[in-house]
Amino acid sequence: MFRANALNEYSTAHGSIENNVCIFEKIKLYMDKKKKAGRYERIYNQLEQLTAKPGTPLSRMATIAAVLYHKMDHYFWTGFYLYEDDRLIVGPYQGPVACQELEHGKGVCWAALTRDTEVIVPDVTQFPGHIACDSRSKSEITLPVKDKKGNLKAVLDVDSGELDQFDEVDQKHLIDIINLIYM
């Protein structure tokens, strides 16, 4: 009886418990996004120093894939598919074995390339034509990579073993990071 009275008093003073839970979830989500943005900023600073050294776009991709894979807890697979002769061929990556070539016009990587924009997929099983290189992949973000002249050169592909792991925070910071490839 005491518990019911306490809950009723709390609800009267502070609104419904459901509304407060919703507010707390929004605060937690905001704090998680802020924490993730801070991590990306530190990674960007590290990558900016590492990629400033002499190297090639391919070596920069390798460095970016390695750092992202090891620094972002929600990343399951991180890598690049190189766009050559109207094909997407695996490039530098970190994680489980990758598909060597992606079937033309199918999957999230080709979607990023043909749409010429970032693609965020909260649940890969819901994406038409998804290419499952590893069945443990649950969500994905892909971003087209262009050289200084605006030519498409590759796609950054990041997978997570959990659903709904990518959002506008990942998108914004990954765009900044891939811009380090063709400096």
Task: Based on the model shown, name its key terms.
six-stranded antiparallel beta sheet; single chain; 5 helices; 183 residues; 21% strand; alpha+beta; globular; Beta-Lactamase
Task: Write a structural description.
It is a single chain. By secondary structure, the chain is α+β, with helices and mostly antiparallel strands. The chain has a single domain, classed as Beta-Lactamase (2-Layer Sandwich), CATH 3.30.450.40. It is 45% helix and 21% strand. A hairpin with a 5-residue loop joins strand 5 (139-146) and strand 6 (152-160). The protein is globular.
The gist of it:
The chain is of the alpha+beta class. The chain contains five helices and six strands; from the N terminus they run αααβββαβββα. A six-stranded antiparallel β-sheet has the order 3-2-1-6-5-4, with helices on both faces.
